[in-house]
Design brief:
Elements: H1 2-25, H2 32-41, H3 50-60, H4 63-68, H5 71-75, H6 81-103, H7 113-122, E1 130-136, E2 142-150, H8 160-169, E3 174-180, H9 190-205, E4 209-217, E5 220-223, H10 229-240
Parallel strand pairs: 3-4
Antiparallel strand pairs: 1-2, 1-3, 4-5
């Protein structure tokens, strides 16, 4: 009994130190496993959560991987359980919402920093390809961001008609596309270029501007606008419709 009591007291003291450290300096100086450990401690009374935190990182490789993990996969880790799985997934969704709110009503064409932060966080580390649309008003301020398609992108899996319907429903004057490459390589495939051109033409016909298409990877991004492809598509559109 004395050994059990001492062990419990030691765990309690450790989690108290973690919480005090966070209250004093935020997450500065925290290891990834300590961040997860602190999060787990909120739903795990009277138990040391360090081992479970390290098991999560071992299983899902990175801090981002833990946040992106599914409910069932999280629950399979010893010491996690449904309540902690909910907490982890809630933290991810809340942070996504926070970053989305930061870009709403901002001109992200002239000031893209917040948009890049949002895209890196929301789609940069996903294991499947997702194709997002950021709908803008006439002053290039964000109206809303939506995931339009999920899965490997091909010219037959992305439907311009659905994109146009979404844009019209949101009264969008312009749009920015973004999708992730789970491999981390941000170079566009032939299919990526074909899809973007197809969408550019379709949107142009209904008076909606495509400002940009960004490919997000683990270590960076590719900008169709910066590489001159959006300008190229516009020139080809004008030549086709002379």
């Amino acid at each position: 009994m004395e050994t059990e009591k001492a062990s419990t007291h030691k765990g309690k003291g450790h989690r108290k130190r973690l919480r005090n450290k966070f209250l004093k300096s935020g997450l500065q100086g925290f290891h990834d496993y300590e961040v997860i450990e602190l999060l787990l401690s909120l739903n795990t009374p009277r138990k040391d959560c360090k081992q479970s935190a390290k098991l999560l990182l071992k299983q899902f490789k990175t801090f981002q991987g833990v946040l992106e993990a599914g409910h069932k996969s999280l629950c399979e880790i010893q010491g996690v359980g449904p309540a902690n799985s909910l907490g982890i997934r809630l933290i991810k969704e809340v942070s996504d919402r926070y970053l989305e709110v930061k870009i709403i009503s901002k001109d992200v064409v002239q000031n893209p920093k917040d948009l890049m932060e949002y895209l890196n966080h929301t789609i940069g580390h996903k294991k499947k390809e997702v194709f997002a649309g950021i709908f803008l008003d006439a002053k290039n301020r964000v109206l809303i961001s939506e995931i339009l398609f999920t899965g490997t992108l091909t010219t037959s899996s992305v439907y311009p008609r659905e994109v146009i319907i979404s844009a019209l429903q949101h009264n969008a004057a312009a749009i920015i596309f973004a999708h992730n490459h789970p491999s981390g390589d941000v170079e566009p495939s032939i299919s990526d270029i074909q899809i973007t051109k197809k969408l550019f033409f379709a949107l142009k016909y209904v008076g909606i501007i495509l400002h940009e298409h960004m490919i997000i990877g683990n270590e960076g991004f590719y900008s169709f606008a910066a590489q001159g492809l959006i300008t190229k598509f516009n020139k080809e559109f004008e030549e086709t419709n002379e």
